[in-house]
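Deviations from the work plan: none for this task. Representative record:
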Amino acid sequence: MDAIRTEALTKDYRVGFWRPRRYLALDSLTLHVRQGEVFGFLGPNGAGKTTTLKLLMQLIYPSSGRAEILGRPVGDVSVKRRLGYLAENPYFYDYLTAEELLQYFAGLFGYSAVERRRRVSQLLDEVGIGAERRLQLRRFSKGMLQRVGIAQAVINDPDVVFFDEPMSGLDPLGRREIRELILRLRDRGCTVFFSSHVLSDAETLCSRVAILAGGRLAAAGDLSEMLAFQARAWELVVTGLSDTVLEKVTTSGQVVRATPLGAQRYALELPLSAAPDRLVTNLVAHGAQLVSLNPIRETLEDFFVRQTGAAPRDRGLEPVAR
Amino acid sequence: MSVIGHVAVNVFKESVRDKVLYNLVGFATLLIVVSYLLGQLTAGQDVKIIKDLGLAAIATFGLLIAVFIGIGLVWKEVERRSIYSLLSKPMRRDEFILGKYVGLALTLFVNVAIMTAAFYVVLAYMDTQFPDAVRASWPAPATDPGMLRAIALIFFELLLVTAIALFFSTFSSPFLSAALTVGLWVIGHFNRDLRNFEAVVKSRTAAYLARGLYYVLPNFSAFDIKTQVVHALPVPASYVVSTAAYALVYMALLLAAAVAIFSRRDFK
Ligand SMILES: Nc1ncnc2c1ncn2[C@@H]1O[C@H](COP(=O)(O)OP(=O)(O)O)[C@@H](O)[C@H]1O
Ligand SMILES: [Mg+2]
């Protein structure tokens, strides 16, 4: 049995009051997510990721198509007992404290008062909320709310969790913590389905991904096998590079482009065909020091533009961080 | 505790934290100040005025709570999207609606109970302030328990108002819900006139229409027995019970409609 299955799931919004037009937010999405995998649901802003998650949570109803979680139709209360959901930019009752909110939600699962207290304090420790747990949520920063959101999503030891942009609005440390939490969930056998508009979030976590663009499934499968995301060049950052050496490697074609970053400090773009180690050795022998060497990959946006030959139809497209 | 119970307790908590109970302080202060002034002016000739005023204040303050919390209950959850997390928990949408309703009913019950207690305390105090001769001229003792019947019907009226506010708030904005609820409440108080409409108009169609509206619109005037209890006129228990039953049936229909609408909604 798959953890998540959608068959031709479609959502049409009617927009405009006077002259309603149909707007296809999700177009025939068919997706199978296996139990126990970390599945990345990727796509630029406006691709339809949140729409899909809301359909899976039955916060909205599909125009056509079907969706199942753990073999039961979505919305089934017995399934909801076994899942967790973190909404995009979650909001919680600002008059409750973090502790009270989690107590409330734990109560909905029917845990005893003792069990509730135990779970809540353990979870708050786990997501790194200390003494603030006694503060009303109106005093919480976005990052802290996100942590509360994660905690409430896993309060029932779910078998499947759905995270909508779990990393958004978090600092690098926060992102790393979320990444670690997702891996812990996976190790426990929990299926993790998370959406992101940032490719690198998925690279470090997922076995498989689906890429959504303009409401349609653009690609699905193993990220490592997706040719689209293979490196297209190398980026080499060095310091102590003399002008003469720089000129030599540029004219010889070993370096495609050199961007100065500071005094004798450059970012060099090397073609993928050449193995970078020879050049590195060469430069080091001429007194330069290696700072970093990274593959340059396509971003989701690059991928999308190449696939369809057009920019995503989203109104406010954000640049994608690499 | 059931899911409905948990949701209800949270509504109660919210109303307490949102300082709704300050309303009670306002009520008590108003009552005490006004009765003190009236006591001075009328030399205790008429405890009826205090009773009138107290019952009217309980009804009005209760109405304010019912409307102002009722219209925001569901709307706020949807608008702020806190409902996303809540509905992903093992609960159905009807349980959500009923939990919200029970929570507000609980809030109203506690409020009305405290206002009633304050009311009787003021009346008991008045009782000690006047000589027997004056008290003997009162149609009923100051702390006449018969007034509880009027308060019970006020409470059932509030339950009905809450159901109306909740019903509207499942599909419209708070402003519109408030306008519609208050509008219905006002019309409902003139409902009796619709019944006698046919005596006034010639047109049969208009008469039927008025009759139809009389049965469909909530009959709020039925809940108002304040004048009777203040003048110590008898109000049969059967009247109180049947009016309460009317409120419960009407309320159940409204909640069923609210659930039907809410269950089909998309949350944007
Ligand atoms: N309630 C709605 N009414 C009309 N259009 C909507 C609504 N919600 C989302 N959309 C549109 O559907 C598309 C997909 O949105 P969404 O699922 O939120 O994208 P993502 O989460 O991938 O950024 C967007 O173009 C968005 O503008
Ligand atoms: Mg989104």
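The two ends of chain B are 31 Å apart (CA to CA).
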